Amino acid sequence: MKIAIFSDTFLPNMDGVSTYLFYFIKELENNGHELYVFAPAPTHVNGSDKGYNIFRSFSIPFPIYEMYRLSIFPYINAIRLIKKIKPDIIHIHTPFVLGTAGFLAGRELGVPIIGTFHTAFIDMKTSFNTLLVNNLTLKMAWLYNMGIYWRCDRLIVPSYIVKKNLIKFARKPFRKEPYVIPNGIDYNFFISISKNVDIRKIFNIGKEKKIITFIGRITKDKGVYSIVNAAKKIKETSAMFVICGKGPEEENLKRIAKNMKNLIYVGFIPEEYKYPLLKESSIFILPSMADVFPISAIEAMYAGTNVLVSSEGGNMDVIGYGERGFVYDFHNEQDMVDKIMFILNNINNLENIRKNGIRYTQQIANIKYNVQNVLKIYEETLFEKKSK
Question: Is the pTM higher than 0.90?
Fold first, then answer.
């Protein structure tokens, strides 16, 4: 099967969508399918990545968040390339510039369009308040986003909470009820790239310290300042908060971290350090308000780390409503502090919850399970097209 993937974020940019797509594309290729990826160029040079069927469109940095890039009018080239490739399926993973290009190409050439919903950016409004990006423009973009996904032949969402919310906020019923397929990781690859390093030595953390880790974008919607506030309230001298990632708030976070004894900001963490850090951590914390099914939480569960998430977004589905992790009330920072202290004080009695998390990543939140189910949707869509 020939499959064209369209995404406005992709490697070398490291975020949850890019990480998922890396696993997803690799697994599809392992199953004998031909993949063609349309993504922004990481520099101002237009071209394709050598050795891969990746078509890079000319792009510029997103004005208020330079780790992301905006493709500049890729529509004509996308249609030209899709005509040449003749894919069986177009799969869009973002509803923005390149996602729109994939959608228009599919409509123009009669190729079935599958959409996957990855980002509830309407919930990121706390991170953006500029002339270009504000509550009004986010709402307009959200309506456009919903319009694109509503018009796809099939829509995939990673959690039941997200499905419920999308149906609730859709202006009219979806043509087909969204399919729920959890995101997944390739846990064998995740371990294979990890380095046998002394994380405590690298980050200068004493052996007596209990590490509480955050890995993600350094933005307000990810809840990084909630972590700072929790660290200030926690009197447990053995706790050490480690914040990893890049984003618009990193300079401010650096200044704050310099004046704190129980919190360090280490910046971007290489992929090969993730597993050793998570394995060494007592808690992985994700106080996000916008995640739909975070890859970072899945990675933490596989590493056998206690996972603590906020009650917002799709986080509850990830931790199974307490079966394989912990949740705190997003609107109550003291609840976060209380949950952290509960985990730290009872860590030896929580083995069953950690085992449930590991089992879940091996059986459900893994890329093989994800791809098997996505392929069923591809086949169902193609069968429906041929039957018409």
Answer: yes
